[in-house]
Amino acid sequence: MARVYNFCAGPAVLPEEALLEAQMELLDFNGSGMSVLECSHRGKEYAAVHDECVANLKKLLKISDDYAVLFLQGGASTQFAMVPINLLVNGQTADYLNSGAWASKAIKEAKLIGKVNVAADCGKEIPTRVPSEKEMKFTPGAAYVHITSNETISGAQYKSFPKTEAPLVADMSSDFLSRPFDMNQFGLVYAGAQKNLGPAGVAVVIIRKDLAGRVPANTPTMLKYTTHIENNSLYNTPPCFAIYMINLVTRWIQKMGLENLYKQNRAKAQKIYDVLDSSKFYKATAVKECRSDMNVTFRLPSEQLEEMFVKEASQQKLKGLKGHRSVGGIRASIYNAFPLKGIDTLVSFMKEFEKKNS
Amino acid sequence: MARVYNFCAGPAVLPEEALLEAQMELLDFNGSGMSVLECSHRGKEYAAVHDECVANLKKLLKISDDYAVLFLQGGASTQFAMVPINLLVNGQTADYLNSGAWASKAIKEAKLIGKVNVAADCGKEIPTRVPSEKEMKFTPGAAYVHITSNETISGAQYKSFPKTEAPLVADMSSDFLSRPFDMNQFGLVYAGAQKNLGPAGVAVVIIRKDLAGRVPANTPTMLKYTTHIENNSLYNTPPCFAIYMINLVTRWIQKMGLENLYKQNRAKAQKIYDVLDSSKFYKATAVKECRSDMNVTFRLPSEQLEEMFVKEASQQKLKGLKGHRSVGGIRASIYNAFPLKGIDTLVSFMKEFEKKNS
Prior knowledge:
The structure is a homodimer.
Chain A lengths: L4 E2 L9 H9 L19 H17 L6 E6 L2 H13 L5 E6 L2 H13 L1 E7 L23 E4 L1 E2 L4 E2 L10 E4 L16 E5 L10 E6 H4 L12 H6 L9 H17 L1 H20 L5 E2 L10 E5 L3 H13 L2 E2 L10 E4 L6 H18 L1
Parallel strand pairs in A: 1-13, 3-4, 3-5, 5-8, 8-9
Antiparallel strand pairs in A: 2-10, 6-7, 9-10, 11-12, 12-14
Helix pairs in contact in A: 1-7, 2-7, 3-4, 8-10
């Protein structure tokens, strides 16, 4: 069977050349006579992968040596707890900006650990959006400010990041490496890999090293950023294969160029938004200024039509277009590796579907 | 290049047929037109893998419905904290048996969380061993008793498990699924996958469901077993590919038969121990009754000879024989998938090396 157009929100489509390389060398990695799945995490074969992957990420985002690049397990969901466990100490308050379902999860988790101020809240608005800077009421001396750069479910995305006095922390799970950004603006950035980066099973965490020192001494070893900084993410056995795949994907991004990829991502999203804007049948979920380049969300006139849309699209190899179960509607997740041709196929399908059903 | 004999302690050798199947379908899983790396964890393709994997593990170990089988991230190192966070509550004491480096790590972590009694301690003895039942001084009303079924570094293994009043908890990372055992004897068993089960990046946790209810309400969501029990390990995105590989490996174990595999494992280890016992050149590290079937550890007359041994073995495609950096010596890790032919090659090499150098 030919490969389909995979609009899944994550795990999601990966660059075909990365998959082909992984396939080719799956039984014999780099002439070692072992699969990369079988290589010791302390051996020279895996060490080369691990170190190249850190270096590629540092290069792609021009990350200075003030920061550590970590590969941690447990996804963004574990980071929701690790961030406050490590940074929200000494009775301080953390400011959180609520932009939707994922920001809400981060807030709920932080409240288990310490004092939280929701500094702006548009998490339940429809059309969906992210807070504007003038709405944000920050706490003087806050431990940090937390944002969710792209809400995967609602399809709302920050187009610029707020200027804050406290260190800015971002969950970038669904738009990390889809566009350049200045890491110096942030204290900590984390991202589950399974969107633009690689398979599920690893989160990339970039942390300004001085911030990690706040952690209370009696914190479990695996939950301390200092553990992983001091051991280059090799305190325990890392998820080697997931990191190996990220490495192949970062090579592909280097070849494409992050700035070019960003341009391409915007152009891909715009093609779908253009259909939405020129139609009375489709309705975009997010306000115009906050529309995500990664997750294009929209509604049809009825849930019945939405169901038909998903079903008929699927028959044309357009897979995974159903919106998140919590909100319904349609969602086209179009990460870095989603091909242009798939966008054109969707756009044609949308126009045709509208003609037939309006 | 032909595949080598991989004696690495973990990540470690996997069944070649599992690797070949993964390779074959890496770009198109089960006719879906997607890689298994790209399939949504909420989609039917991955759901079939996940559910089969749970079912295979339950069947292989005859696990009753009183227990939940979970796939968690963070390895055994995270379980060192999760076990006491969830089970060591209300001021109770947990009994730990110290059999070596890995038991010590579990003890150190539990002490961060609550009261710990080291109920027997032979963790630093050489020759290495596990505690005998008559040495164990259990706490009346203990929250649980924790053991490390096989010490990967020292090569000492429990041949039978202690009878305890409190729920028995075992770190089985390096011998899980290498032999049958009665899960009803245990309250909780956990194992990092990267020995007998699959690649690094997932730990299998089997927990008697009633024990999970003890957890304090303000525990971070990802650290509560209840979260993962209630969501069939799908609260967040699981490490799908690692679980897919475990599923392929459990299919292979079912075909081989767990009892047969156990017999084969004992026979494989015995061949090496026979060389050690008939030699004055080599010296086994563990006492005879506690010798591991998984990690055969021994010393040579000098560190210089050990270095030569590792180097010359490597030239004959016998890879990864160097002992753990903390203890030195030689370690042959011979998990389920390690082939008989590799054992014979090692045995011949050992005899020849002894002849040349004694």
